[in-house]
Design a protein that fits this description.
This is TetR family transcriptional regulator. It comes from Gracilibacillus halophilus YIM-C55.5. It holds the Pfam family TetR_N. By secondary structure, the protein is an all-alpha fold. The protein has helices at about 1-30, 35-40, 45-50, 55-65, 70-80, 85-100, 105-110, 120-130, 140-145, 150-165, 170-190, 200-215. The chain has two domains: about 1-55, Arc Repressor Mutant, subunit A (Orthogonal Bundle), CATH 1.10.10; about 65-225, Orthogonal Bundle (Tetracycline Repressor, domain 2). The longest helix is centred in the first third of the chain and has 27 residues, at about 1-30.
Length: about 230
C-alpha cells in the first residue's frame, strides 16, 4: 500500500511540473524554458523539481510531448486516405511532416536533441503515465507509436507491405532509416535557415525525397497500385 501511495504522489507531482512546463512553453516559447520558471509556476522550489526530473532536458522532453496531440489526433484521418500499407505509410509521413515543421523546436526536442539519456526509455515512460494522450488512435497504431524507436515504429508500420507484395523484407530497415535521416536533414536545414523554406515547402520537399526513396524499392509490378505521389 505504501508503494502505491508513493507512486500516486509521484504521478501527481509529475503532473504539477508538466502542467507548469506546458504553460511556460505556451506563454513564452520553449526557448525561454527554465527550471526556475517552471518550479515557480508549479508552486515549488527548483530543488524539488530536480527530485522528479534528472535534468532540464528531461522535463523539456516530457513537456514537448504534450504538443504532439494535434499530430496524434489528425494521424487517423491521414491513414484513412491510403488503400494499402505503402500509401498509408506515406500519408502518415505527410502528417508527421506537416506538424513537425509547424512546431520545429518542439519536434527537435523530442527527436533530435541530446537528452543525456536514452530517449526511447523516456518516451516509453511518458506513455506509461500519459497513455490517455493516445485516445482516438486505432489499437494497431497505438502499438506502433509506443514502440521504443522512431525508426523501429516506421519499420513495424510498413512490415505489412511485405505481405502485400510491395517491398522485400530486406528493404524495410533501409527505408525506415533512410526516411528518418531525410526528415532530420531537412529539419536541421529548416531550423538553421540554411535554405529559405516555408513550412509548406519543407514538408513538400521532404515528402518528395521520402516518396522517391520508397518507390525505389517498390516491386516494379506493384508500382501501379500506388495512387499517391509527391
Amino acid at each position: 500500500m505504501a508503494t502505491s501511495r508513493k507512486e500516486i504522489q509521484r504521478a501527481r507531482m509529475w503532473r504539477y511540473f508538466l502542467d507548469a512546463a506546458t504553460d511556460v512553453i505556451q506563454e513564452e516559447g520553449i526557448d525561454h524554458f527554465t527550471i526556475r520558471k517552471i518550479a515557480d509556476k508549479a508552486g515549488f522550489t527548483s530543488s524539488t523539481a530536480y527530485n522528479y526530473f534528472k535534468d532540464l532536458s528531461h522535463l523539456k522532453f516530457f513537456a514537448a510531448m504534450r504538443f504532439m496531440s494535434d499530430y496524434l489526433e489528425e494521424l487517423p484521418t491521414y491513414l484513412e486516405k491510403g488503400s494499402n500499407t505503402v500509401e498509408k505509410w506515406l500519408y502518415s509521413w505527410e502528417c508527421f511532416c506537416k506538424h513537425s515543421f509547424e512546431q520545429p523546436k518542439i519536434y527537435s526536442v523530442i527527436f533530435m536533441d541530446n537528452l543525456g539519456s536514452i530517449p526511447e526509455e523516456l518516451l516509453d515512460h511518458y506513455y506509461q503515465i500519459y497513455e490517455n494522450d493516445l485516445i482516438g488512435l486505432p489499437d494497431g497504431v497505438k502499438e506502433i507509436i509506443m514502440e521504443q524507436s522512431f525508426a523501429k515504429r516506421s519499420a513495424l508500420f510498413i512490415q505489412s507491405a511485405v505481405d502485400e507484395g510491395f517491398i522485400k523484407e530486406e528493404d524495410i530497415d533501409h527505408i525506415s532509416d533512410m526516411t528518418l535521416l531525410i526528415w532530420k536533414g531537412m529539419m536541421n536545414t529548416f531550423m538553421n535557415n540554411r535554405r529559405k523554406y516555408t513550412k509548406e515547402e519543407a514538408t513538400k520537399t521532404t515528402m518528395h525525397y521520402v516518396y522517391r526513396s520508397v518507390m525505389h524499392v517498390i516491386n516494379s509490378d506493384k508500382c501501379h497500385e500506388i495512387n499517391v505521389s509527391y
